[in-house]
Design a protein that fits this description.
Helix content is 59%, strand content 4%. The mean pLDDT is 77. By secondary structure, it is mostly helical. It has a two-stranded antiparallel ribbon with strand order 1-2. It folds into 2 domains: 9-98; 101-141, no CATH class.
Length: 141
């Protein structure tokens, strides 16, 4: 009876097969982890933006509620109506503007928000108002 000798090539093939399967699994898992980390970062950025939006909205609603309790004459006498103070909220600050209603002239719109060019229609209305009040038109900048 002959005994079979150990063949080192078969052992090396098994080791190479295990290394190949392990490397493939590691590469696939690494790519999957990168994709999921990227998705997590995108979701976190979107949730942070949504939280900031909600905080700004809550701050604005709070400011509007506070301003509605104060009589309009006091707002103009104190200067708050022309230069509203910023509202600190949750580690940040909310800046806002008061817009005119009911056909009143909105001085904030003398310059367009989206392109920083003069809003000619509003400037024309302000010029007409200045003429009616007897104010020099040179004071418009």
């Amino acid at each position: 009876m002959k005994l079979k000798r150990y063949n080192p090539r078969k052992g090396a093939m098994v080791v190479m097969l295990i290394v190949a399967i392990g490397s493939g699994g590691f590469i696939i898992a690494n790519n999957y982890a990168k994709e999921k980390l990227l998705e997590f970062r995108v979701a976190k950025a979107q949730s942070d933006g949504f939280k900031a939006f909600l905080l700004a909205r809550a701050g604005l609603q709070g400011a509007i509620g506070a301003l509605k309790k104060i009589p309009e004459e006091i707002l103009y006498q104190s200067g708050i109506a022309f230069n509203p103070p910023p509202v600190p909220l949750a580690g940040g600050t909310i800046y806002y503007r008061m817009y005119a209603e009911d056909g009143k002239i909105n001085i904030n719109n003398l310059v367009k928000n989206y392109d920083d060019l003069p809003n000619l229609r509003v400037q024309e209305m302000v010029e007409l108002l200045y003429r009616q009040l007897g104010i020099k038109i040179e004071n418009i900048s």
